[in-house]
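To: structure subgroup
Subject: Chain for Friday's discussion

All,

I'm putting the inputs and outputs inline so they're searchable in the archive.
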Amino acid sequence: MFCNMKKLHTLWLFIAIISIFSSCKNKEFELKPKISQKAKIYQTGFSTWYGPGFNGRKTATGEIYDMYKYTAAHRTLPLNTLIRVQNINNKYWTIVRINDRGPVRKTLILDLSKIAAIELNFTSKGSAKVRIQILSQSKNPLKRIVETYINLNKQLPN
């Protein structure tokens, strides 16, 4: 009985965290804090986006690429790493998960999904100078969400 209660409690906690996480994507309530001076920037460089030509193909993780999911391709970061990507020109940022390898061109550091590029406002231009910040490298999805929130809260201005 106690074991079932514990599982039920864990399930409710997971559902609560997911609902909070998904409600943050609503533009009306979305927080877009600036990267603080203390935040560790992993990498700065140029990013492009990839979409229709790759949509439906397998990624390095084995999942099917969907250009309307918040994902990205990076050469060296571990797969399933959550990163925060900020467009340096307009300060817009988004969170994506590394699920593929790339980009092919050596002058680029990241290939973003189309939806991520839309959020960073550079789809028409094709590329943008970005900053990458690692949020979580955990393989456990629940732990990744919690770590992401902890890391984002550390960056919120007082």
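Points worth raising on Friday:
The two ends are 44 Å apart (CA to CA).
Residues 1-30 form one domain.

D.
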